[in-house]
Hints:
The structure holds two protein chains of two kinds.
Chain A: H1 8-41, E1 44-47, E2 52-55, H2 59-66, H3 70-99, H4 106-118, H5 121-131, H6 137-144, H7 156-184, H8 188-196, H9 201-229, H10 233-238, H11 250-260, H12 264-292
Antiparallel strand pairs in A: 1-2
Helix pairs in contact in A: 1-12, 2-12, 3-7, 3-9, 4-7, 7-9, 9-12, 11-12
Chain B: H1 2-20, E1 30-36, H2 41-57, E2 61-67, H3 73-82, E3 89-93, H4 97-103, H5 121-124, E4 128-129, E5 132-133, E6 136-148, H6 149-154, H7 167-181, E7 184-188, H8 200-203, H9 223-237, E8 256-262, E9 276-279, E10 291-299, H10 306-316, H11 319-325, H12 339-345, H13 351-364, E11 366-367, H14 374-385, H15 395-410
Parallel strand pairs in B: 1-2, 1-3, 7-8, 10-11
Antiparallel strand pairs in B: 3-10, 4-5, 6-8, 6-9, 6-10
Amino acid sequence: MTRSFWTTRRRDQLTGYVFITPALVGAVAFVFLPLALVVWYSLHEWNVLADTFDFVGAENYRQLAADPNVPAVLRATALFSIGLVVLNLSLALLLAVLLNQKLRGTTVFRVLFFSPVVVSLLAWTIVWGFLLQDNGGVNGLLAAAGVEGPNWLRSGGTAMASVVVVQVFKNVGLNMVLFLAALQGVPGELYEAARTDGAGAWTVFRRITLPLISPTILLTSIITVVGSLQVFAQISVLTQGGPGTSTTVLVYYLYQQAFQFHAFGYGSTLSVLLFLIVLALTVLQWQMRKRWVFHES
Amino acid sequence: MKKIASLSVLALLGALTACGGGEAEAGGPVTLRMTTWSSNPAHVELFNGIAADYRKTNPDVTVTFEALPLENYTTTVTTQIAGGNPPDIAWILEAAAPDFVASGALTPLDESIENAADLSPAATALWRQDGKLMGYPFSTSPFGVFVNTDLLKQAGQTLPTGDRWTWENAVAAASATAAKTGKQGLVVRDFDYKDWTNLATVFRGWGAEAWSADGKTCGFDQQPMIDAMTFLHKAIFTGKALPAPGVAADFFAGESAMTIAQISRASLLKEAKFGWDLVPLPAGPSGEYSVIGQGGLGVLKKGEHAAAAADFVKFFTSPPNSAKLAQFFPPPRQSQLTADTLAKANPLLKPEQLQDVVIDGIDGGVVKPSHTGNAEISQAVRSALDPLWKPGADVPGVLRGVCTAINPLLAK
Lengths: 297, 412
């Protein structure tokens, strides 16, 4: 007697594939296919206006290696990412620890700090653009306190800092909520045991809280790093990459090349570079988890 | 991949047309889309009126006007083209004209313009390729200075006239008015320390040019430009005659004493609550001069209904409609550039204002700087000029830096 083709194992496999099909189709159509197309475009010179699409091999990559603007662009990107990640994570953790106390009014503050997350990014940025003008609200407040504020978005030193701070205020609430959830998952008896052993607040935080929320720190840092590398709207609204090229980050530069200078091929090459940087950083962080992420099991 | 995709789309379309008998070309309803950078209600009403007139004889054709923000206008249109959704007709800024005209993206318009011999050769020069008219400069608009006479009066200033209307005196009046009223002095509209091409309305008074006529030599490090920019820097940071970087002020909302703008802005003064005047650009050390901003319109070759679009352009630019458009956009038609014709269309402006600013301005005017690869060059100039916009800047040093930045691009 021949065995039926549809063994239990095969049937299970089919069910599995059927379940993942919708997600797979979405991922192929909206992630893998565009990714492959960008790599393909990066091997071409594509002028939209002239309607030319010529294969140029590695020419765009040679241009990338020789582009005098790229070092400054990468520097600005790194500066933005480091500033954002450090400020965002430390502020989020600080807020989460403060709002984790059993005090009156913490819910109000939680809502207050989270609310910018649900505000439209563009609306948020445009309002900050007005506030940071030379004669805007921020300098108005400073003047009332007798301080002459700088021209935030127009001077080399403060433009990048302003963009970072605007973005931190926008998104710090999200990381704060994630940290809050993690903090509340730390078993209370561990704290009790530590205090019984005579540990101070700082030691408790360093030896118990930090290790137990380290998976969340890893998650938030990956999300924040990847997000920071893709910043665009804030730069486009607040500084347009200036003054000089001090806030021209990689995504803004590739937008300029592709959409303003009509060099879609070279723009695609810059996207490939961005993809590789994000990939490398994510892999690196994932590897580092073995060293500093604490797992119970 | 793109070619394969296009081919398969073509094949599919071919199959569909074979089944459907090619109805699209045979006169089914057509919707034409024209992209513009004006959402001014008065402009939109006029465009819709012309489109409605066209529909009377062409009931199957609907024309829609899509107003896009000016600051990203060319980028948005280019993105639409890249995304396979080009407008049928697009307004084109003079800065982008060399790229659009040279790229072959536009359909020649020689057949679509009635009485083309009437077009001013100076106005159409930028829009021709090998003698063919690739874009129609529907707006050839000289820059003038709008003055808030009430603010000047309030500050005890009078507008210098005749030979006394010089940059030196204009800036002095602006500076004194700003100091006295707490409002801003002179605003170079749409410059905002970004779109430096609008500064041509100032530096041409010193005979300065961004680059030579052949586009090969940088003009920023030449003496006339150094003199002009030194004057401007002093006016901003010492005289406080212009708003400092990062300070917003809208003349048309009564926030500044003067503004340099094109006459199409006069419509914003319809309900102005202050007295105003319009005068030509002040004379500079190199004498009187005028600067023109142009807007053209072109039919995109890749548009779905290029033939229908060209036919609508013929109607839109015909002498009667050109006369209607003249109330906002000075036409390139020489026969309509008379004080009489313009006065009929511009009830807000006095005949002498039209003569001095518009007619004389177009006569001797030079179009704002433009170049092939304009966006990249403009961006490089903008970045390199940024260090100039602070007190104590080394003007000649910064301007040399501009040339260092754009020389490789000019040589392309």
